[in-house]
Amino acid sequence: MISSSLIIPPKILLLRLHVLWTMWYLKSLMLCQHLLLILLHQLTLLQCQILLKQALPPPPALGCSRLPNQIKIS
Fold this sequence. Notes:
The chain contains 1 helix and no strands. The chain is an all-alpha fold. This is Putative ovule protein.
């Protein structure tokens, strides 16, 4: 015969399953949140690079060591 102490009542089994499922669900949400933060960080860096490119003047042409406003015409 099976001892009654080895049998898990259905309510406790359901409760354990619910707790395990909830823990898994929360870990999944945390992982998604972490991935979204990484994506947001990457987009912010990309936006900063674009703004810097727009703010800086273009580099001088090759072979020209002076900027256009420094060239003197004699």
